[in-house]
C-alpha cells in the first residue's frame, strides 16, 4: 500500500478543494491510500517548538509515515491559504526535524473562477522546493470548480479524464521518486 498524506487548505464544509481531493482519490489507481490531515491547528508559535501541541505531533507523524504528500490549495488574495502555510510551518519544525524533507509531493488547486488557483500554486511550489520535497512538475491542475464539478461535488466527464491522468502521474511519481 502506498500512503498519501493529504493537505486540503480550506476548512469549510463545502470546500471545492476538498471535493477536488476526493475526486483525485476516487480516480487514483489501486494501492493508494489517502489520509486526510487535520489542519485545524493553533497558530504557529515558536515558543512551542520544544513541546509541540498534540495535534501537531499527530500531523508530523502522519507526514513521516506517508510515502507522499498531496497539497490541495485554494487561492486567497493571490496566494495559498493561511491554513496550508500554518500547517507547513508546524510540520517543518523544530529546526532539523522537517517532516517533509525528501518526500514526494504533488500540488493542485481549485477556485470558483477560471484561473484555478494558479498563483497560489506557483507560490506554494516554491515553499515545497525549499522544504526539500520532490515536487511533481507535470501535469499541472489549475481547476475551475464552477466548470468542472457538478452540484454533488463529482467531477464532470471531461474533468474526470483529466483528473484521472493526474492521479496516475502522481501515483507513479510517489512510487518512483
Ligand atoms: C478568495 N477567492 C479567490 N479566488 C481566486 O481565484 N483568486 C483569489 O485571489 C481569491 N481570493 C480569495 C480570498 C478569500 C479570503 C476568499 C475567502 C476567497 C475565491 C476562492 O477561490 C473561493 O472562495 C473558493 O471556493 C475557495 O476554496 P474552497 O474553500 O471552496 O476550497
UniProtKB/TrEMBL annotation:
What Enzyme Commission number(s) apply to this enzyme?
A: 1.6.5.2
Tell me which UniProt keywords the record has, alphabetically: Oxidoreductase
Q: Which InterPro entries does the record associate with it? A: Flavoprotein-like_sf, FMN_Rdtase-like_dom, NAD(P)H-dep_reductase
NADPH-dependent FMN reductase-like domain sequence ranges: 3-145
GO molecular function terms listed in the Swiss-Prot or TrEMBL record: FMN binding; NAD(P)H dehydrogenase (quinone) activity
The protein's name is Oxidoreductase
One Gene Ontology CC term in the entry: cytosol
Question: Pfam families from the entry?
Answer: FMN_red
Amino acid at each position: 500500500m502506498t500512503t498519501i498524506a493529504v493537505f486540503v487548505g480550506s476548512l469549510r464544509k463545502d470546500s471545492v478543494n476538498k471535493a477536488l481531493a476526493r475526486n483525485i482519490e476516487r480516480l487514483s489507481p489501486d494501492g493508494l491510500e489517502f489520509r486526510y490531515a487535520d489542519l485545524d491547528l493553533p497558530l504557529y508559535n515558536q515558543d512551542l517548538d520544544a513541546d509541540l501541541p498534540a495535534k501537531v505531533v499527530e500531523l508530523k507523524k502522519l507526514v513521516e509515515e506517508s510515502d507522499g504528500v498531496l497539497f490541495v490549495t485554494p487561492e486567497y488574495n493571490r496566494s495559498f491559504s493561511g491554513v496550508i502555510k500554518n500547517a507547513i510551518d508546524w510540520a517543518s519544525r523544530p529546526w532539523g526535524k522537517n517532516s517533509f524533507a525528501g518526500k514526494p509531493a504533488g500540488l493542485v488547486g481549485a477556485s470558483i473562477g477560471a484561473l484555478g488557483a494558479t498563483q497560489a500554486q506557483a507560490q506554494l511550489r516554491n515553499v515545497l522546493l525549499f522544504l526539500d520535497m520532490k515536487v511533481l512538475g507535470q501535469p499541472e491542475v489549475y481547476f475551475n470548480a464552477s466548470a468542472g464539478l457538478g452540484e454533488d461535488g463529482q467531477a464532470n466527464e471531461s474533468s474526470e479524464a483529466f483528473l484521472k491522468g493526474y492521479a496516475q502521474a502522481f501515483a507513479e511519481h510517489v512510487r518512483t521518486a
